[in-house]
Amino acid sequence: xxxxxxxxxxxxxEAPPAARPAVPRGSFKSEKGDTSQLQQxxxxxxxxxxxxxxxxxxxxxxxxxxxxxxxxxxxxxxxLLIIIATIGGILYLVFKPKIPQYSVDNLRISDLRLNxxxxxxxxxxxxxxxxxxxxxxxxxxxxxxxxxVWYKNTQLCEGSIPxxxxxxxxxxxxxxxxxxxxxxxxxxxxxxxxxxQTGRIPLDLKIKVPVSVKLGxxxxxxxxxxxxxxxxxxxLSANSLVRIKASTCKFGLKL
Length: 255
Description:
Layout: H1 61-95, E1 101-114, E2 120-132, E3 137-141, E4 146-151, E5 154-159, E6 164-166, E7 170-182, H2 185-196, E8 201-215, E9 218-233, E10 240-242, E11 244-254
Antiparallel strand pairs: 1-2, 1-10, 2-7, 3-6, 3-8, 4-5, 4-8, 8-9, 9-11
């Protein structure tokens, strides 16, 4: 009886569990319990950024001088424009320039006939009154003026104004002889005669006169006076004084 009794170990419930082999924190143990091949944790390395070093470019003296020259040139041009505009404004306020006025007083047909080559020969005499309305400005009429008479798109005759000086607030009467020869005279003469039956023949007197302006004792550069006078006459009979029924003139300056 005593031999058949077995001794069972008594388990102490309050005893701490058996000590386990220590595994470093952050390691992984294999299924076989081999801790000799442990994977080491990846340690976060600090992030470093490479910044390229910017070296200053060498100073270009030629380019700097060129830029300065351009800036000075632009500044001088602007300054000159301001000075010119100021002087022009002062002169305008002092002298108060006005464009000369012109009017066609009468038109005489000295000759209007067909030549043997069927061209049309015309000779007109025009009386023009030129008025200078300026109180302090004189006008020099230079060479190279041109007056012409047109019927529709065909030039009939032309002439020029003599060279002279017109003083302040002066009125000058000019008698100008115009001559010319046109092709297709038979057709042109027929058109003029047909218009004469209505008593209204349209003519265009074109004026281009180079003049120089005198401000006090100062004579300025030449400018051109351009004019266009639309005339309505009753007839173009030779050796007769034509009656001007209507006249409209426009004038301007060309520098």
